[in-house]
Amino acid sequence: MDIPKILFYLFASITLISATGILFVRNIIHAAYLLVLAFLAIAGIYVIAHAEFVAVTQIIIYTGGILVLLIFGIMLTSRLAGEKVLTGSGNRLQGTVIGIIFFMLILRGIYQVQFPVAGSGPHKPSGPGFSNIQEIGIRLMTDYVLVFELAGFLILIALVGASFMAKKDFGKTGYDTH
Amino acid sequence: MIPIEHYLILSAALFTAGLMIAIIKKNAIVILIGIELMLNAANINLVAFSRLDPSVFTGQIFALFVIVIAAAEAAIALAIILNIYRVFGVSDVDKINQMKG
To answer: Which of A31, A43, A52, A178 has its CA 20 to 30 A from that of B24?
Structure first.
């Protein structure tokens, strides 16, 4: 057992425990905190899979951005006058059955396919001298520059749209509701 | 080296957890949390397959764009949930039955 292996299984179990924890907690704030834990553990898994830049992006955008947004959403959509913010559960039986069947289906698919052994690809750039981030930056600005610009445009539209929809008199001035 | 099947099994379990959260929970924000977990499960798959790819970074760059679009999706979804809360006074999706759906 080398250290990356131990760390992988540690992070994997943290991820799965916190993800199933979200399924069982009733307090929404606790669910959001468990989501932080799951996202951080997933970032650790990215580091072990030699995707350092994706790991850093995961921490900055997910735990830094989306989680704050979610917690703001929780605060804005519930009356926090001393009471806990709870969520109900419905469709328990159907959800469990669909989940188990779905998991079995994917598991069957995974074991039917023969994957090549990891690291047997043409070149495996890793090691102390190799910079993952530099390579990704060059790729983003050359091969994938159109997608990059489109993603930036999408983010701009999403931000404008979200702030327009979230303003106070949305629906009163823009169009006739009656 | 960790075999790729273990990444895929982790991702499948995470996706199943997200799917079950999205089906079972009633609060709209918790459903959004489930959707974020499913997106992350897909991202783990992309990063894992990127190790087998001859041009190593395609999967990682795809994962980056998935993260970008997830951020846009979360912002829009929260704006919609906020509006639903203003109109109906609840963020419980089962109580929004004005159209008898």
So the answer is: A43
Q: What is the largest CA-CA distance in chain A?
A: 68
Residue contact A46–B47, C-beta within 8 A: yes
Tell the residue number behind the tokens 């419980």, with chain if given: B92
CA–CA distance, B82 with B92 (Å, rounded to integer)? 12
Instruction: Take residue A171 and report the two structure tokens written for it.
Output: 């629906």
Which of B1, B23, B43 has its CB closest to that of A95? B23
- How far apart are the C-alpha atoms of A95 and B25, rounded to whole Å? 9
Q: Structure pTM?
A: 0.88
Q: Mind telling me how many Å the CA of B30 is from chain A's nearest CA? A: 7
Task: For A82-141, give the DSSP string.
Answer: SS--B--B--HHHHHHHHHHHHHHHHHHHHHS-PPPTT-SS----STT--HHHHHHHHHH
CA distance B60 to chain A (A): 7
Query: How far off is chain A from B95, nearest CA to CA, in Å?
Result: 11
* b/e A16-41 (16+ beta carbons within 10 angstroms → b): bebbbbbbebeebbbbbbbbebbbbb
Per residue in A112-158, pLDDT (tens digit) is 988 776 555 445 555 556 677 888 888 889 989 999 999 999 999 99
